[in-house]
Amino acid sequence: MTHTVLVTGVSRHIGARVASVLAADPGIDRVIGVDTVPPPSLSRDGGVPLGRTEFVRVDLRSPDIAQVIAAADIDTVVHVGLVSSPPRSGGRALMKEHNVIGTMQLLGACQRSATVRRVVVRSTTAVYGSSPRDPAVFTEDAEPAEPPVHGYAKDAAEVEGYVRGFARRRRDVTVSMLRFANFMGPGVDSPLTRYFSQPVLPTVLGFDPRLQFVHEDDAVEVLRRTATEDHPGTFNATGDGVLLLSQCLRRAGLLSVPVPSQAFGLLGDLARSAGLVNFSPEQLRLMCHGRAVDGARLAATLGWRPKFSTGAAFEDFLRTRRPGGGLPAAALDALSRMVTR
After folding, report:
1. How far apart are CA 196 and CA 252, in angstroms?
2. How far is Cα 29 from Cα 16, in angstroms, rounded to an integer?
3. Contact 210, 289 (CB under 8 A)
4. Which of 79, 97, 333, 291 minimizes the C-alpha distance to 192?
5. What is the DSSP letter of 335?
6. What is the dihedral of CA 54, 56, 57, 62, to 10 degrees?
7. Which one of 139, 227, 230, 249 is at 20 to 30 Å from 78 when CA atoms are compared?
8. Which helix (H) or strand (E) holds 41?
9. 262 exposed, middle or buried (CB, 10 Å; 0-12, 13-18, 19+)?
10. Tens digit of pLDDT per residue, the chain (341 long)?
11. What gap in Å lies between CA 17 and CA 158, rounded to an integer?
12. In whole angstroms, what is the distance from residue 289 CA to residue 206 CA?
């Protein structure tokens, strides 16, 4: 029986949804949500209602998180607070501190706790990297051909290393590590959803990468299940199937402009400086080589299948982001050829 749950990252959409679902569970006595800023629902800016979640403002990089865990007799920690793109103030350095140093402090607090019995960590399939030498489909035991060396993916790989170390030291604690594909859905705000929200999309000339998405509803359900049940191990979490980038563009009715990879990087720098979208080096590699993972282990362990396939998750995103439908495929192709010339 789960009694008291700590959820990190509750000021962001997925974290707030997880806290809300757990707070609605009558089998859970208390849910404590932590973050560096109050959730939008507490600042009258809308957002996901947190129900009976108790919010505590704390920075994971500080030792204060250990005091929160000790004072509330936390038995389950759900860490969904990793940041996938640099904040406007502080940039990449602050992002790395939050992701890596913050996780180290959190795990250190869990290691010293006498009450923590379950730890769930949100990771990402980006830890597999994107390379022309990748296998067709990654399983959880596969090693990346080219380990990530930039940004969020590098942070997540480091975080996973610390989580594995914690699991070895505290064998009495159930540790679940969830490698999610790119989140997709009406409420998701990420570098990839911002990319698909632009009126004209640059693509890398000569490449049509495979993409996978996990719908936010399925992601929340996986986090809920692993927070209330013992499922130790590392799991890929994705919707069934894949979409080519070209298929995504056709479904969205968006105009694409194929550009050389160097120009794609330059456009990314311009867009990032304008605050539009973050085309990081890891995003560039994804837009070249793509990535696909196998989610069979998670489905078998939970006895569960995602409600949304990759395609259905993308369609649900489009229903809320696409104004008045898109361009016909023939017109899209003609415009793309004109712009490319």
Report:
1. 8
2. 18
3. no
4. 291
5. H
6. -150
7. 139
8. none
9. exposed
10. 558 999 999 999 999 999 999 999 999 999 999 999 998 876 555 668 888 999 999 999 999 999 999 999 999 999 999 988 777 666 788 899 999 999 999 999 999 999 999 999 999 999 999 999 999 999 999 999 999 988 899 999 999 999 999 999 999 999 999 999 999 999 998 889 988 988 888 889 999 999 999 999 999 999 999 999 999 999 999 999 999 999 999 999 988 888 887 777 666 655 555 555 566 778 888 999 999 999 999 999 999 999 999 999 999 999 987 543 444 444 445 445 544 55
11. 26
12. 10
Contact 35, 50 (CB under 8 A): no
Amino acid code (one letter) for 110:
C
Using a cut of 0.70, tell me whether the model's pTM lies above it. yes
Residue 337 CB-density burial (10 A; 0-12 exposed, 13-18 middle, 19+ buried)? exposed
